[in-house]
Write a structure and sequence with these properties.
The chain is an all-alpha fold and about 70 residues long. The chain has one domain: Orthogonal Bundle (Arc Repressor Mutant, subunit A). It has 4 helices and no strands. The protein starts with 7 loop residues before the first helix and ends in a 5-residue tail after the last helix.
Amino acid sequence: MSRPRINIGQIREVLRLSFTEQRSIREISRATSLPKSTVSDYVKRAKEAGLSWPLPEDLDDDALDLIPFS
């Protein structure tokens, strides 16, 4: 069974809360209504991809969508 399509806006919000607000995985999970495991995975993969906040200006939604978050 495939996973539901990722909402890029949710990824951006997870990264913003993690990198700028230093919120915990649990807090981000509650704020975004995403499972803790998903939030943790997004943050881990963003760090592995060398991303930080603010995201680079040239990283639009299409480019962000190419990063393997799922």
